[in-house]
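Please, structure for the following, as tokens.
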Amino acid sequence: MKRCQFSSVFFAFLISLLVLVPFASEQNVWGQLKEIENRIPKNVPLKVEFKNYDSENWVHDLDIIVTNTGNKPIYFLFLSLTLDVKSENGNVRGFGLPFGNGELHSTETEAKPGDLSIAPNASYTFKIHNNSADGWDLRKATGNFIEPTKGFLALGFINYGDGTGQRGGGSHFKKKTKSAFEN
């Protein structure tokens, strides 16, 4: 009789391991990010490379290397990295990645002397800001947190500093010129 009880307890334990362990390892494992999809339109003059996204501490280690393949310098660039997980309130999780003078987010604004740029054929490495990465770690430490498996990089806005640029979908804009009738 005792042998039968031991066997059934042992069998139940084995079944629980086989059923529960795979789910537990999928819920809160560091470094589950497996892929980042580049959703920047092809007509935007940027080459993008992703490094360290599959590391255990990806939110701190991720490098997004962007090369300006166009013939104009880039004075402001905003990219967004969204993830395939949502927050408790249903919002998509992600990070904003800005470069340059924030005043250049407007289509009417031109660069000023001294503004930084990404020259043609030059590269810039985007990192998730330390405060955002630390906040991610804090939310994760509270438990009930699912790691993303996929990220999506999208263009928010480019300003070439001369009154021209491109918006998220790749559409071009240029600074409005005053007509002969305007003051």
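The mean pLDDT is 81. The first strand starts at residue 35 and ends at 38.
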